[in-house]
């Protein structure tokens, strides 16, 4: 079974530029998550989708971050304009469904490493 | 909010056992997870335990849960250099579908 795919793996941009990340979840997984992982910390949830609807985006800095999952499969996360403090690893994860039990277990992609100069 | 604490570093000799500890504050925790993150990679789910269990064993991995003390541990038997990574503890509270992650423990295995 293919895992969660993400691209690009690395991105270096200057502050105030825009950047977009792409995620393809495990086939059949209804729930998709975007996390931000700053160096030395655990992942922090940015946004969660159930199919193509947003379940939780309370931690998403909406003045600069946006995300969509138009057809309920792939998702893109965009930052516009980027700030120095956005330098982090952006992880995408998916789960079979939005649940507390095993079916809600999250599987992570390799992440996109963003460096903002 | 709820908190998950881990020590930042653990150094062990190859062939010894490693024990990575985690404490959490959420008394309603239902599922507790251990993830492994190798350099340049995402988080790989190692194992999880339901809160009504005390122990779970999977090959070289043993998870112990002390619900009274809100303490979770991951024991890796016969630690190898390939086990060098960051290990994240995470927990889900009752009614919460999003896990809370610790800051990770860097396991360093030396010859």
Topology, pairings included?
The complex is a heterodimer of chains A (117) and B (111).
Chain A (H helix, E strand, L loop, with lengths): L4 E3 L2 E4 L5 E6 L6 E7 L6 E7 L2 E4 L8 E4 L6 E5 L8 E8 L11 E2 L3 E5 L1
Parallel strand pairs in A: 2-11
Antiparallel strand pairs in A: 1-3, 3-8, 4-5, 4-9, 5-6, 7-8, 9-10, 9-11
Chain B lengths: L3 E3 L2 E5 L4 E7 L4 E9 L5 E8 L4 E4 L2 E6 L4 E6 L8 E9 L6 E2 L3 E6 L1
Parallel strand pairs in B: 2-11
Antiparallel strand pairs in B: 1-3, 3-8, 4-5, 4-9, 6-7, 7-8, 9-10, 9-11
How would you briefly describe this protein structure?
Chain A is built from no helices and 11 strands.
Quaternary status: heterodimer
- Radius of gyration of chain B, rounded? 13 Å
- How much helicity do the residues of chain B have? under 10%
Beginning-to-end CA distance, first to last residue of chain A:
37 Å
Range of helix content of chain A: under 10%
- From N to C, what is the helix and strand string of chain A? EEEEEEEEEEE
Major beta sheet summary of chain B: 6 strands, mixed
Count every beta strand of chain B, where a strand is a DSSP E run of 2 or more residues. Answer: 11
Mean pLDDT of chain B: 92
What does the radius of gyration of chain A come to?
13 Å
Overall, the morphology of chain B is globular
Count of helical stretches of chain A? 0
| Structural class designation of chain B | mainly beta
Note the gap between the termini of chain B. Answer: 40 Å
Structural notes for this entry:
The complex is a heterodimer of chains A (117) and B (111). Chain A is an all-beta fold. Helices cover 0% and strands 47% of the residues of chain A. In chain A, strands 2, 4, 5, 6, 9, 10 and 11 form a 7-stranded mixed beta sheet that branches. Chain A has a 4-stranded antiparallel beta sheet with strand order 1-3-8-7, with no helix packed on it. The model of chain A has no long low-confidence stretch (mean pLDDT 92). By secondary structure, chain B is an all-beta fold. In chain B, 0% of the residues lie in helices and 59% in strands. Chain B has no helices and 11 strands. In chain B, a hairpin with a 5-residue loop joins strand 4 (29-37) and strand 5. The model of chain B has no long low-confidence stretch (mean pLDDT 92). At the A-B interface, strand 5 and strand 10 of A face strand 4, strand 5 and strand 9 of B.
């Amino acid at each position: 079974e293919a895992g969660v795919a993400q691209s690009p793996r690395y991105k270096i941009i200057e502050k105030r530029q825009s950047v977009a990340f792409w995620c393809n979840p495990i086939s059949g997984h209804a729930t998709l998550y975007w996390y931000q992982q700053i160096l030395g910390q655990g992942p922090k949830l940015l946004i969660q989708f159930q199919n193509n609807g947003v379940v939780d985006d309370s931690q998403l800095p909406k003045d600069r971050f946006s995300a969509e999952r138009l057809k309920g499969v792939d998702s893109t996360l965009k930052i516009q304009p980027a700030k120095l403090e956005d330098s982090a690893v952006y992880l995408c994860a998916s789960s079979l469904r939005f649940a507390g039990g095993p079916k809600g277990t999250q599987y992570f992609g390799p992440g996109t490493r963003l460096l903002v100069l | 909010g709820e908190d998950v604490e881990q020590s930042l570093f653990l150094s062990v000799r190859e062939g010894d056992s490693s024990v990575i500890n985690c404490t959490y504050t959420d008394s309603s925790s239902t599922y507790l997870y251990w993830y492994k993150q190798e350099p340049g990679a995402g988080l790989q789910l190692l194992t999880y335990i339901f809160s009504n269990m005390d122990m779970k064993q999977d090959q070289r991995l043993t998870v112990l849960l002390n619900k009274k003390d809100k303490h979770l541990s991951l024991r890796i038997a016969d630690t190898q250099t390939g086990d060098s990574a960051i290990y994240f503890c995470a927990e889900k509270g009752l009614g919460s579908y999003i896990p809370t992650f610790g800051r990770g423990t860097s396991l360093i295995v030396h010859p």
